[in-house]
Amino acid sequence: MTRPLQPDTIRAPFARYSHGVEIPAGHRIVYTSGQLGITEDEVIPKGVEAQTRLCFKNIKAILESAGMDLGDIVRINAFVTDRMHMGGYMKTRDEFTKSPPPASTLMIVSGFTREEFVVEIEVIAAKAE
Questions:
Q1: What GO molecular-function term can you cite, just one (predicted)?
Q2: What tens-digit pLDDT sequence spans the chain (129 residues)?
């Protein structure tokens, strides 16, 4: 079982995430590439929440191919194209993450390969062997 790290000597997280997550020995680890909100048939929905849902759907499929699920995520790196997307991203992210929540970083970037994309998400997952 992974262990969240929340030291009392530092400020509590700003949102629903853990400052760190310990992965004990004997765990397999999966790293995903950044996933974008696009369907198999090239549809890119408008809005950060819809795109975030697709990102997590893609991540779920990747993890399932390794015998894992969204509950095995220990770290999230996410990128949005504007501060206005932060709230919608975090709200939607929280629908897909377990408790205790994984470690997480959210960055604001100038853009992605297509102008329509507003969010990209990559994760690290770990599961006992």
A1: deaminase activity
A2: 899 999 999 999 999 999 999 999 999 999 999 999 999 999 999 999 999 999 999 999 999 999 999 999 999 999 999 999 999 999 999 999 989 999 999 999 999 999 999 999 999 999 999
Q: According to CATH, what is the number of the domain 7-128?
A: 3.30.1330.40
Cβ proximity of 107 and 7 under 8 Å = no
φ, ψ of residue 119 to 5 degrees: the values are -150, 145
What are the structural domain ranges in the chain?
7-128
Opening angle at CA 6, ends 59 and 125, nearest 5: 20
- Before 101, cis peptide (omega within 30)? no
How is residue 63 written in tokens? 């993890």
Q: What is the 3-class SS of 19-64, one letter each residue? A: CEEECCCCEEEEECCCEECCCCCCCCCCCHHHHHHHHHHHHHHHHH
| pTM greater than the 0.90 cutoff | yes
Tracing tokens 């929340």 back to the chain, one arrives at 6
